């Protein structure tokens, strides 16, 4: 077998396969199956539910917490260990609930394959399991079949195949026996059919050239199997944070434990201090709060038609600075519609004539009112462009054009070839009852469409209609229908047809020509409509041209402009041809360079890396091209979201920082390989998802700053007090503080509304960690304030005593909790979040204060070593708050100035968000 069967004659391919059109014998098939194996895609190993659950605990933060729990058990503090365990398990359950739907891409690829195939064996036509096919088998195809293997076409009658899932080509592709160029891209290999594509019309026979993993779909399966899971920016940053905190705890223990031993502190007290430091250093609730906040974002995004399959993808969307998007169904509506007509030298905007019963008159191609002569006038603009000529044609000729398109047609408005469905829909929009029309003028004979003939004809009584490729149909016409009736189609008229066809094509329109002949003349000698004389048909009357397009979605241009204002580049990657891709891109504002797939192949990785930033449109892109473009962008430190709907998109979706699949048109393979599924297949939903992702990261930044500032203060207080020989905050109280602050209030921050300028900021830089300079200012400044105030309170309450009793611990414990709630609103003010914008936050603070009161005034206090506080004690705490909160505000003012300095020097003026 040859590596390029598409470029060789069918007889040569059959000879190379050592088979003729009658097929293999059963014995030969058995031998080849033993050599090549079954025609199927190997199953992936997959992840079991146990693996998914255990993966939730693969984090430095979790490991540090488990170590602290073990130390608590060793020290005899079972309550501390239980609290830590509850936090760790709860976080694991949250993550497992979201990640349970593991990747099943390879399984989906298997399900796409056809279950059976009609094959020629032993000189007979039989139906076998598709897995039994081998290279060299001759397989028959008919309308509606799923192609069971890759193969070279050896016979075809009007064969068209929907290859959108594999190549991205938006329209069915005509297939023929004729070979194509060796370097023809996959989408232009008209002599080949490919596994898992679908026959939309016609019939054919092909010789199998590849089976199983040797097919194009099998190649995609191998790419998916070799793809490693990507880690989002937030995942990486939180893991780095956990590693840093873990090393910090080890360092503190290495410093404190020997120091306490040398001072004569008993081993149990030393162990308890080490456990307290570990608990104080780790924000226990951070993994759970991040998970729950992302889950809240998932729910909101689902309400906005974006279904998130992996939680971290919510935040990752907010860091995206390039969106690589498919065209069909995402940027466009995903359906062919009639856009423009050309009759009697006039261009007619179809919207002007749909269902109004009349055609507006205006400037003709000749530049005068309806004379139909002279030089061509204004060229029609693309959709949404400058000038479109009004038609000077009479309504009856437009009606004839649309009526002929509906009669010479095998589709309905809901089913059939996309271009034929568009013609039916146009006739109905014009006011025709197509079903009644077809009943009144029944088809008495037909000449079916074929890729060789490039036209089809139907006979209806004494008139025959023809539609097809303009250059072919016009070549069979001797006259053209004008205002004055049919007149001779001379060379000047034929050239005007060619010019208008090119102009329509330049505007991304798919163009069909329509003609008719009276009495069935030209179909055969007696006018009955037989096919014997089909190729001699040469006396038609040219009616006009129909220009169709898969139009851009109305909201997409604004959505692209919005994402660009947010600092996000948009690149269209499609299987469509260069002309169509460029025209649609220009309509949507994607006016950068246009590159074809074969040009990508000619570039080295370094050359592509240098070029990719200037290209807005990639046409005729094969699966490997998409992955190369993606990797070139990622090598340039870009964070990339890749959209797609087909099997061919799956490797790129899985390799992308965020893979976005289409929910309506998307294949199961694409959905399983993605992080996010758009339920409405709309690019505008991506813009909303990016906005939601940025807002979520804003909120994550706020509660990370809030939690870490509390932990820094806790560590400092425990560490410095231990140097005096005091254990002022035991592990159970530190855990409780962290539960109250890391719990409901921090979670309520996730419901904060987005700021008004969230989509006016550039994306945050990939190498800018979540803990940036402004956050360090918040953590260090407020942590220092809290530490100084708390140590002062301890000194005041001890009043020279040598030991810390339950009362002192309770006062420090409670004052710390109250201060944290005050600091919460300062952090929000720093981020310019309106104070009264989040009712859930007020409810969370009230609930947490109630829980604090419960451990002071109910039997729960025996587990926390606390005592009930008197009114005077609350007065002292109020004084502490009155001193501390203004100091917090001074820190916030300083951080705002730091943010302004960052902006003045070109750094990120909005901490942690890229603004």
Q: CATH first level of the largest domain: which class?
A: Mainly Alpha
Helix/strand class: alpha/beta
Query: What is the CATH superfamily label of the largest domain?
Result: Calcium-transporting ATPase, transmembrane domain
CATH architecture level-2 label of the largest domain: Up-down Bundle
Discrete helix count: 33
Shape: elongated
Looking at this protein, list some descriptive labels.
Rossmann fold; disordered C terminus; 915 residues; eight-stranded mixed β-sheet; 48% helix; 15% strand; nine-stranded mixed β-sheet; Calcium-transporting ATPase, cytoplasmic transduction domain A; alpha/beta; 4 domains; Calcium-transporting ATPase, transmembrane domain
Q: How would you explain this protein's 3D organization?
A:
This protein has 915 residues and is of the alpha/beta class. It folds into 4 domains: 5-43 and 107-226, Calcium-transporting ATPase, cytoplasmic transduction domain A (Distorted Sandwich), CATH 2.70.150; 278-305 and 689-904, Up-down Bundle (Calcium-transporting ATPase, transmembrane domain), CATH 1.20.1110.10; 317-328 and 554-681, HAD superfamily/HAD-like (Rossmann fold), CATH 3.40.50.1000; 337-549, Calcium-transporting ATPase, cytoplasmic domain N. It is built from 33 helices and 24 strands. The strands form 3 sheets. Strands 10, 11, 12, 13, 14, 15, 16, 17 and 18 form a 9-stranded mixed beta sheet that branches. An 8-stranded mixed beta sheet has the order 8-24-23-22-9-19-21-20, with helices on both faces. Strands 1, 2, 3, 4, 5, 6 and 7 form a 7-stranded antiparallel beta sheet that branches. α25 (668-672) links the parallel β23 and β24. α19 packs parallel to α26 (683-723). The relative contact order is 0.09. The model is unreliable at 101-113, 358-392, 525-535 and 903-915 (pLDDT under 50).
């Amino acid at each position: 077998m040859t590596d390029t069967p598409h470029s060789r004659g069918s007889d040569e391919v059959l000879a190379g396969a050592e088979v003729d059109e009658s097929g293999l014998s059963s014995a030969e098939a058995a031998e080849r199956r033993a050599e090549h194996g079954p025609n199927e895609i190997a199953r992936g190993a997959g992840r079991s539910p146990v693996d998914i659950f255990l993966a939730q605990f693969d984090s430095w933060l979790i490991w540090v917490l488990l170590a602290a729990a073990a130390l608590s058990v060793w020290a005899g503090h079972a309550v501390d260990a239980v609290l830590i365990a509850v936090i760790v398990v709860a976080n694991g359950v949250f993550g497992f609930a979201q990640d349970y739907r593991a990747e099943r891409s390879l399984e989906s690829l298997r399900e796409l394959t056809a279950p059976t195939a009609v094959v020629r064996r032993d000189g007979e036509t039989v139906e076998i399991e598709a897995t039994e096919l081998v290279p060299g088998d001759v397989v028959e195809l008919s309308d509606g079949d799923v192609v069971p293997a890759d193969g070279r076409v050896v016979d075809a009658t009007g064969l068209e195949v929907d290859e959108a899932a594999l190549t991205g080509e938006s329209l069915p592709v005509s297939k023929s026996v004729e070979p194509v160029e060796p370097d023809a891209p996959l989408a232009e290999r008209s002599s080949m059919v490919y596994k898992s594509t679908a026959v939309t019309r016609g019939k054919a026979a092909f010789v199998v050239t590849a089976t199983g993993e040797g097919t194009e779909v099998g190649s995609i399966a191998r790419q998916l199997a070799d793809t490693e899971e990507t880690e989002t920016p937030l995942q990486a940053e939180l893991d780095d944070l956990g590693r840093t905190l873990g090393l910090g705890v080890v360092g503190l223990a290495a410093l404190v434990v020997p120091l306490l031993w040398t001072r004569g502190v008993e081993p149990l007290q030393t162990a308890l201090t080490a456990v307290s430091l570990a608990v104080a250093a780790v924000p226990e609730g951070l993994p759970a709060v991040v998970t729950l906040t992302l889950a809240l974002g998932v729910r909101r995004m689902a309400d906005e038609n974006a279904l998130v399959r992996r939680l971290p993808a919510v935040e990752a969307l907010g860091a995206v600075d390039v969106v690589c998007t498919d065209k069909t169904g995402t940027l466009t509506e995903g359906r062919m519609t009639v856009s423009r007509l050309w009759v009697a030298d006039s261009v007619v905007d179809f919207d002007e004539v749909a269902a109004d019963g009349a055609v507006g008159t205006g400037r003709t191609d000749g530049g005068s009112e309806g004379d139909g002569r002279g030089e061509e006038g204004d060229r029609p603009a693309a959709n949404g462009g400058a000038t479109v000529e009004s038609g000077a044609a009479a309504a009856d000729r437009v009606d004839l054009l649309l009526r002929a398109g509906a009669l010479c047609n095998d589709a309905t408005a809901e089913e059939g070839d996309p271009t034929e469905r568009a013609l039916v829909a146009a006739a109905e929009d014009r006011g025709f009852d197509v079903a009644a029309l077809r009943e009144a003028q029944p088809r008495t004979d037909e000449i079916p469409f074929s890729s060789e003939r490039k036209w089809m004809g139907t006979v209806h009584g004494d008139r025959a209609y023809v539609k097809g490729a303009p250059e072919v149909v016009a070549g069979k016409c001797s006259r053209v229908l004008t205002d004055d009736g049919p007149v001779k189609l001379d060379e000047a008229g034929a050239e005007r047809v060619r010019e208008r066809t090119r102009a329509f094509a330049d505007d991304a329109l798919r163009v069909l020509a329509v003609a008719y002949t009276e009495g069935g003349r030209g179909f055969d000698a007696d006018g009955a409509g037989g096919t014997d004389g089909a190729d001699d048909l040469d006396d038609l009357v040219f009616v006009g041209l129909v220009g169709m397009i898969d139009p851009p979605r109305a909201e997409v241009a604004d959505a692209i402009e919005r994402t660009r204002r947010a600092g996000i580049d948009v690149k269209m990657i499609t299987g469509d041809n260069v002309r169509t891709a460029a025209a649609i891109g220009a309509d949507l504002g994607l006016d950068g360079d246009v590159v074809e797939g074969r040009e990508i192949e000619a570039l080295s990785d370094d050359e592509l890396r240098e070029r990719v930033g200037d290209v807005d449109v990639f046409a005729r892109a094969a699966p490997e091209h998409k992955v190369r473009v993606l990797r070139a962008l990622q090598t340039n430190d870009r964070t990339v979201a890749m959209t797609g709907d087909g099997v061919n998109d799956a490797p790129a979706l899985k390799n992308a920082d965020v893979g976005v699949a289409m929910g309506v048109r998307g294949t199961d393979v694409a959905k399983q390989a993605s992080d996010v599924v758009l339920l409405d297949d709309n690019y505008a939903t991506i813009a909303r998802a990016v906005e939601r992702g940025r807002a979520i990261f804003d909120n994550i930044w706020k509660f990370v700053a809030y939690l870490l500032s509390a932990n820094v203060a806790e560590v400092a207080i425990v560490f410095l007090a231990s140097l005096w020989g005091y254990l002022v905050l035991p592990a159970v109280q530190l855990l409780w503080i962290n539960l109250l602050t890391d719990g409901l209030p921090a979670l309520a921050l996730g419901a904060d509304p987005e700021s008004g300028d969230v989509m006016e900021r550039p994306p945050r830089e990939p190498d800018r960690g979540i803990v940036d300079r402004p956050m360090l200012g918040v953590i260090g400044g407020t942590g220092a304030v809290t530490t100084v105030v708390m140590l002062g309170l301890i000194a005041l309450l001890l009043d020279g005593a040598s030991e810390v009793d339950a009362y002192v611990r309770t006062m420090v414990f409670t004052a710390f909790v109250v201060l944290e709630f005050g600091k919460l609103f300062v952090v929000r003010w720093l981020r310019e979040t309106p104070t009264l914008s989040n009712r859930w936050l007020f409810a969370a603070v009230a609930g947490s204060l109630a829980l604090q009161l419960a451990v002071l005034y109910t039997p729960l206090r025996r587990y926390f070593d606390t005592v009930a506080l008197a009114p005077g004690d609350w007065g002292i705490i109020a004084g502490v708050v009155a001193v501390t909160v203004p100091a917090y505000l001074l820190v916030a003012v300083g951080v705002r100035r730091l943010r302004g300095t960052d902006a003045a020097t070109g750094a990120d003026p909005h901490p942690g968000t890229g603004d």
